[in-house]
Design a protein that fits this description.
homodimer; 633 residues; alpha/beta; Ubiquitin-like (UB roll); Nucleotidyltransferase, domain 5; 5 domains; 6-stranded mixed beta sheet; 19 helices; 30% helix; globular; disordered C terminus
């Protein structure tokens, strides 16, 4: 049950479910309502005027608003809950709120969860014997912060207050008073945005006052020694008694090393980093917390936690401020994790007011797929296997120096290689090179629509000799020679099959979601490719092999490390973070392993699609690649 | 601004300030409203019918009540806040709530802050992939518990659920889910009530399902090695760099030893102790938490904290359930601590509906004094010095074997001694013996109203020779011989002066409060003597020397370890705990060191009072002992 809210003076209309606060609805609609407490009902700054609709007077309203204001319909928007359609007037913000541009044209109003407030407190006297804690807590209360605190703070408090003539800065994270610092330190407030990938980990040290990125550093996840993908990591925890502890130690070492780097690079003290937002897939975040990931890996794929959680950095040994808080974002399911939720936040997929349909794909060992718009969204994960990572490919390798990352085959039969590191000898093929190579081979006709590599005798005469001469047999397997510069880099028939299985799985996942939503490729406004693989892949090749639906190539957009961008956004704005935490409510998670049609669709999309006659993709059903009855290698 | 609430059908009328919930007002008035969530708005069980008065419909009301119920005035009493006089109908409780008799005729309805709830959860399936945490959290939500949890729980959860076929017991303390145990363990739920005294520490292990005390154990506070009173403990923290840590370690060792004893005695596992309520004076509780107590000891006497706090037992190394919570009660001021608040709770001083005036005195190195009724209460602390503890008294000693604890002097001059340990040779005088001795000496006339011990030549002829013969000189000081059985136990003139200073300080504190309230002894319904000293002291002697105002002796009541009783009550009922936490709002703390009249009154009450002509104490001003112009020793 959703109600319509019309916001004046901007005439913005949005729809929100029963029980949503006006504050959150405005936030959702991209309208900034003033607030320092972030919707906790304690600062009294978020007042709006309800011109039409039902908004009973609440406790907090009485505290902050006069009887005549109440009569005129003024309410605190964070306490006013929707039970009917309504019309709401939002007063203009005093001054311009500070904002930062993040994500993909995402204008984020700075509203970090960390607040620093400077106080010159009255010193105790026989007439004012309030305890130290009450003194600071009531000063904060007057500023609209209602806080909890803990033993570590209590122990420091008497010395800090008396050592600084009661002139101190309170550090509040959420509703926790985590520190009281001597003097005025409000200018130094930092946070850490972290994307824990299975392969690499990215940390960005952010100035919470300005939104500026002070330092950014990425490094290999040190768990990589125990396997390249989440399944091998989980296996390690199952096989070794100390495996879980070992993997937790590794990722925490990784993070602490990156913390050392970003603090050294920026000259910022680690004690001034008060909060971290960490995203990653469910397995990575379970390992980070030392939680057994085994149930994630076996049916029915149940994580210990999918909800966002907050804990003290010290609880896992992260070397930030000792009382710093760490928050995660929610997972949509066992294999569509907080990294994807962060990506959805960064790309605005579920909130874009244009109402247009977007498809977000993060290609990796698992392909995470999100299809939707503000009107409704589906997500799923498709097991792609390691082909895109270069594993199980004869000359496959990671995207590092010497890897072929791009391939072009001209109609004349010239094979042009793009190699990481420039004009050097290739040593293998990266995932993006694999996609390019197979797409180009299909386009010139040396691979047919079923994925079969032509035999030389079939090709000879129909294709340039330069190409036919590249059809070789290596160890009894038919292959296409990419480079003979000593290194003999080939793409084998098996490699093509491995890619077909990988892209078929993702393509089938996309198709299941499109069928469930009742849409086709022609309904898609954009296809967003996330993750580092998404940044390197050639959109045209991805479309050619059927990894993504057939949409005009300019509608296929690489969005880079969307997860990291989402983590930054959530760090800089707790309103955005709350929006991220509610994303699972708006998304239906589709479990493929429970779907009987998945295998049928998978089989039907293993081949390569026939391009539509015109490139506008208007013909119905063209998102579904040409069916291949049978696969033979 | 207070409103009148009339509760039906009991026709109980109470008055509560603006903003009080009906739930709390009923609780305050001693009326039980059904609830499992304890007034958090989540269980929906506390519904009442508001027959008259203003009670707007709130979110929680809509969740639990039908539109027709809302129309009829039904509301959740924990969400309904007073803004006018009102009339409220409380439905009869289904069944009889379990209760325990605690404190002084205090019928406490068992409503502990610890709840154990057994669940047979649905096992995960491809159709129900909810995370482990969501599974248990949503089951708890349906039962009315909205909970937080932490890393330790998350780590155990997957194994516990799968090891017990998803049949588990959730352990909730407040709004924290602290454990999930395999199987049904609801029958085993225990808590610890602790009174940390400067001298001795008492722990009671309580069955939270029945209210039964399973084991009780007291022991010497191991900090005693660093001084007998709070000031010497504070000094130790100031003089020694490691002093604070040392004292904290000592009290935690003391508590852990007592925990070992009560678990051994009762056969109850420490992992089944989920909560502790700890009371004590401000210095003791600061030391327990490792917080510097120095500011408590110097003007303007400002503790780091006076508010009640909650923390994890493991944070200070208490060996209960690793995630058990510890809560304290609030302090009224630097020297009227949580032990006194607990005593007020146990004696119902501020809530007794009889509206009668009571005086509560806890006699020790500091005399804590509380004077009041449901209509208003004052409190203060008077520095008594160590005389009552037996220190600075020539033959003074603690109340242990061989100590004279009672003295009677017959008109014939017989001196009868009551000795701890029975008919044995006395080795010294305990505080209660000192009070008795001086009171009896004054009554027979061997000490005059100014506290002066008569010289033998003044006494001879006026008093029995048996008494005069006991007037001796020891080391040049005049004294009264209590026992000459080899041991030569005497009460010296200096001892009498020391007692006068001690009781004069407390007497002056009482007088300041009575003057401020505009009452006299004749207005007092009862004088309650708390603490172990209060249990041993002879009420008549206390009155004779002017330690307590002159009221009929049967109105002077020893209430024993009221602090410990209060801790038990707070442990067994979170409603009572909330009432205790609000006690400071109803009590004005009077700081004596800021009062110019204190020294005048102190001087005026150093002597011994003249009993009023009749024992009904009706004559005004008789609470003020006869003034003594000058003290000479």
């Amino acid at each position: 049950m959703k109600y319509e809210i019309r916001f004046l003076p901007s005439e913005t209309i949005t729809h929100a479910p029963e029980g949503t606060t006006i504050f959150n609805a405005a936030n959702w609609a991209g309208l900034a309502i003033d607030s320092t407490c972030g919707g906790r009902g304690t600062c009294g700054k978020c007042k709006v005027r309800v011109l039409k609709g039902n908004a009973p007077v609440r406790e907090a309203d009485r505290k902050f608003l006069s009887p005549s204001e109440l009569d005129e319909g003024w309410r605190l928007s964070c306490r006013a809950v929707l039970h009917s359609d309504c019309v709401v007037d939002i007063p203009r913000l005093m001054g311009n709120p500070k904002a930062a541009l993040l994500g993909y044209g995402h204008h984020v109003i700075l509203n970090p969860n960390v607040a620093k407030v400077y106080f010159e407190l009255a010193e105790p006297s026989l007439q004012d014997q309030r305890s130290d804690l009450e003194r600071i807590v009531s000063a904060l209360d007057e500023e609209g912060y209602q806080v909890h605190s803990g033993i570590a703070l209590w122990r420091e408090l008497p010395k800090t207050l008396r050592g600084s003539d009661f002139k101190v800065t309170a550090v509040v994270v959420g509703d926790n008073l985590i520190a009281v610092e001597p003097g005025n330190t409000t200018q130094s407030s930092y946070g850490l945005a972290v994307d824990v990938g299975t392969t690499s980990v990215v940390t960005a040290l952010i100035n919470l006052n300005t939104g500026a990125v002070e330092a950014v550093k990425s490094g290999l996840n040190r768990q990589a020694a125990f396997g390249a993908d989440v399944i091998s990591r989980v296996s390690h925890t199952m096989m070794e008694p100390e495996g879980l502890a070992e993997l937790q130690t590794r990722i925490i070492e990784t993070l602490n090393d990156l913390l050392d780097s970003v603090t050294a690079d920026s000259g910022i003290a680690r004690e001034q980093i008060y909060e971290a937002v960490i995203v990653g897939n469910a397995t990575m975040l379970h390992l980070l917390l030392g939680i057994d990931p085994e149930p994630i890996s076996v049916a029915p794929f149940t994580p210990t936690m999918t909800q966002p959680v907050t804990f003290r950095a010290a609880e896992i040994g992260l070397r930030m401020h000792p009382e710093a808080r760490v928050s995660t974002l929610p997972h949509l399911g066992a294999y569509v994790g907080a990294d994807i939720v962060a990506g959805i936040l960064a790309t605005d997929l579920t909130r874009n007011k244009d109402g247009k349909l977007r498809l977000l794909i993060d290609v990796g060992t698992n392909g995470e797929i999100v299809l939707g718009s503000v009107n409704g969204t589906l997500s799923t994960a498709a097991p792609a296997g390691p082909a895109f990572e270069g594993a199980q490919i004869k000359n496959g390798m990671r995207a590092s120096t010497g890897a072929i990352e791009g391939i072009e085959i001209t109609p004349e039969g010239d094979v042009r290689l793009q190699i990481i590191g420039g004009d050097i000898k290739p040593v293998g093929i990266a995932g993006s090179g694999l996609v390019d190579g197979v797409a180009e081979m299909f386009k010139v006709g040396i691979v047919d629509a079923s994925g079969r590599l032509l035999r030389p005798e079939e090709a000879r005469g129909n294709l340039p000799d330069a190409l036919v001469d590249r059809l070789v047999t290596v160890d009894g397997v038919r292959a296409f020679l990419l480079s003979d510069a000593e290194s003999n880099i080939v793409l084998t028939q098996q490699d093509i099959r491995a890619l077909q299985f990988a892209k078929g799985s993702i393509g089938a996942g996309v198709e299941v979601l499109m069928q469930q939503m009742g849409v086709t490729a022609s309904d898609l406004h954009q296809v967003l490719l996330a993750g580092s693989f998404g940044s390197y892949i050639n959109p045209s090749s991805a479309r050619t092999i059927g990894l993504v639906p057939w949409v005009p190539v300019e509608q296929i957009v690489a969005v880079g490390n969307a997860a990291g961008e989402g983590a930054k956004i959530a760090l800089l704005s707790f309103r955005e973070r709350e929006a991220a935490n509610r994303i699972p409510e708006f998304i239906e998670y589709v479990e493929l392993s429970g779907r009987s049609e998945f295998n049928d669709i998978f089989t039907s999309v293993l081949g390569f699609p026939t391009p539509p006659r015109s490139d506008n993709g208007g013909a119905e059903g063209l998102s579904l690649p040409v069916a291949i009855a049978q696969i033979t290698s």
